[in-house]
Amino acid sequence: MKLKVCLVGERAVGKTSLVRRFVQDEFDDRYIRTLGTKVSKKKLKVERSDADREYHINMTIWDIMGEKSFTDLLQEAFFYGANGVIAVCDLTRKKTLKELKGWVEQVYGVTGEVPVVILGNKKDLEDRAQLTIKDLNRLCKKYQSSAYLTSAKTGEDVEGAFQGLAEAMVDQRTT
Predict the structure, then answer these.
(1) Is the Cβ–Cβ distance between 82 and 5 less than 8 Å?
(2) Angle 100-111/68-79 helices, nearest 10 degrees?
(3) What is the mean pLDDT of residues 138-146?
(4) 134, burial (CB in 10 Å: exposed 0-12, middle 13-18, buried 19+)
(5) Rounded-to-integer distance, Cα 156 and Cα 159, Å
């Protein structure tokens, strides 16, 4: 099964670092601004014991720049064909969570309703956190999604977040 995932969120929330951690199991703390979009791929498995099935997923991950003004111009091209969304905020910047609703709505405007997971990234900076899992869960109710507190730096729950989205996408496509 081939599935396209779009990572969305404001600049410097860690989207590129999350993709690098998930795909290559690496972390680099230098900030490199994404221009346009960067596409990565990873294979994974989703097992469904209730259906006694195993799905092999070829996930294409679109890391989309966090500049809404530029993205507005190209949203059709970036979001077209997406099967799921990872919406990322920075736990140390409350405003980045407020902006996620707009990002998800932009994707929905092109794709219709697809599975979404909400990531609060930079969990390793707990002493500077302005957001909690409860804050993320409020937004999750709107999109019937799951929330994860992740750290691209340590790798905490990064795999789980991508796997959770893969399972939701498989469920949507097979039911």
Answers:
(1) yes
(2) 30
(3) 95
(4) exposed
(5) 8
Tokens of 54: 């195993």
Whole-model pTM: value is 0.91
CA dihedral 110, 111, 117, 121 (to 10 degrees): -30
Per-residue confidence at 81, pLDDT binned at 50, 70, 90? very high
User: What domains does the chain contain, in order, with CATH numbers?
Assistant: 2-174 (3.40.50.300)
If one counts every other C-beta atom within 10 angstroms of the C-beta of residue 90, the result is: 24
Question: How would you list the strands of the sheet with 84-90, edge to edge?
Answer: 37-48, 53-64, 2-8, 84-90, 116-121, 146-149
Q: Please classify residue 156 by burial: count the beta carbons closer than 10 Å to its beta carbon, then call 0-12 exposed, 13-18 middle and 19+ buried.
A: middle
Structure tokens at 97: 């969570």
Contact (CB, 8 A) for 20 and 38: no
Place of tokens 């059709």: 76
| Under 8 Å between Cβ of 171 and 5 | no
Query: E strand or H helix at 134, and its extent?
Result: helix 133-143
Work out the angle between the directed axes of helices 15-24 and 158-174 (0-180°, nearest 10): 90
